Input
Amino acid sequence: MTQTPDALAAGRTAAAERTTPARARAAVLTVLVLGAAVLVLLSAVHLTQGTSQATAGQLLGALLSGEDSQLAGIAVDSRLPRLIGGVAVGAVLGLSGCALQAMTRNPLASPDTLAVNAGAHLALTAAAAFGISLPLMSSAALAFTGGFLAAGLVLALTGFSESAPIRLVLAGTVVAMGLASVTAALLMIYAQSTQGLFLWGAGTLNLSGLNGVLRLLPVVLAAAAVLVLLARSTDVLSLGSDTAQSMGVRVTAVRAGLLVCSVLLASCAVTMVGPLGFVGLCAPAIVRLLSTRVIRFGRFGWALAGSALLGALIVIGADVGVRAVFLDGIFGFTDPSLAVGIPTGVVTSLLGAGFLVVLAIRMRSAGGNQEISAVGVPSAVRLSRRVTVLVVSCTLLAALVVAGMLLGDWWLRLGDVLLWLGGEAPRSIEITLDFRAPRVAAALLAGAALAAAGALVQTVTRNPLAEPGILGVAASGGAGAVIALIVLPTGSAWTMSAGAAAGAVLAGLIVFALASSPAGSPEKVVLVGIGVMTAAQAVTQLLIATAHPHSQAMAISWLGGSTFGTAWRDLGPLTLMLVASLPVMIFLRRELDLISIDDITPRVLGVSLTTVRGAALTVAVVLSAASVTAVGVISFVGLAAPHAARMLIGREHRWFLPISALLGAALVSISDTFGRSVIAPYQLPAGLVVAVIGPPYLLWLLKRSTAKT
Output
């Protein structure tokens, strides 16, 4: 039986420990003591930070003596809850991530990548949206249910195969995006009952007292104790399922215990402070890297201790850093309101995104056995079938345009549209259709642009799961546009277009620089794209958290992918980019056919891979940026539409690209019409509707890919 890298590493660790047990124990204790000392130092600094000028010594003196009730109140109600809550949540997330990585034998497993945080967040948001007031322990139980169901769905799709870590991350990311879309929809529909949950959803340490932390502490300690009891069996499990079973370990029971405890810990953290991004990924992953130097960290019991300590260090360090910048003016800029308002989870997400990119670069490629396999396409497609698909697609699109004009908060008749076209409609109908027409056009143009961009990206990377949303291009374009909206004095369509283009180009350069490198396997490209997407989303949350309330509302609505308020003048950049890209796609259609096969065939026929890829990716990035400017961030269109087109008419780009564009336009159009009509007079952004529809398709694709491999 071939041993896995984890099994070999575990064997080397065990051998080294047998030879030098005292030295190994001393080394791990030294590291833990040094880490604890750094945590104490950071905690002391943390206590000195606040909007009041009281020092840590004054606060502790007032707390112990009871002479100054005002200072004692600041310590008890503000600074100590923030510090203790940060330490507790960081340690809890470190434990949870360590248990998940041990259970799956996957270094990329965490409460974020298994959608545990997203499931718990949705469950608590749904309770608030529907006006259900729950006590703390019931809220924790509800969060546990949501997180457990989400993690169960991800594991059902991916299994426990440590040889395919990216599949788990991709499935978890897709599930998390779908759940986050439902959460965003609830926040928009039930804005009054969920007021204040946006910042909490980014992970904030603004706790009102220690009551919540203390009441959840017994649950946390019980889960941690169970993990310690499972340590020996988990160490054996690291040698492989077959080996563990032969040594008498009940693999299913151990994995179930690890899963329940990890989800319970993550749910408690979400209940206390909201989802703090990527702490549960970074802490145990760093401990795993340290295990090459500190041998004992290769054992689960010591890894738990190291992960808990490092998780607390990450959270407190991130909070100290933010407060040092905006309270202490470390870079010459002081704004106490930002120090309180910026969620700590934004900072940890930025750190985690960078760490995820580093892990992706360090990962070994799957080589010829790619983890992501393409959906089968018809080998020979008749011209009659292609013409039929084209005619049906055009007919469907025309029907959707008519439906988009007729449906909404006020349902019209076809005769009303004909009167409007002739300039004879009553004033009320004229106003309604003047408002709807540019929205319908925006949905069509944006859908076509995103689908064409997705088709180009999938072709040049030969990665069936690559698309502007998953690769972070759309999210980065959104961040650039939000910067233009919030920072620049005039947030016009053209300035937002420039900001979106800059953000999308930056993301494209980062992701596709790896794609063009010798080590740039498809799975690495997707993983780096997820990291870029996470960083862009964190930057966007940071900007929204620091913006004026009016700009906040505009940005949140726009980021949902909404056509609301779109005027004809706003479609100028998108229309221009689409028209300009058409000649390029027509000119490159034959070269794209060759590139979609392999790298050798186009080189033999004299095709410059660098030139064609650069031109195609430039067009894809520009189209994505223009789409973001027009309607906001819409994901999954660039994935679903090209796949459907490929399965219908094959790979030949003279047919593949226009059919993809037509199907993308249809998908966004039907989503926009549905969002305007289903809960009228309230509206759901088209991007949220697509994000709810898209994940099931991608999850089906992942399941099919898993069955093939």
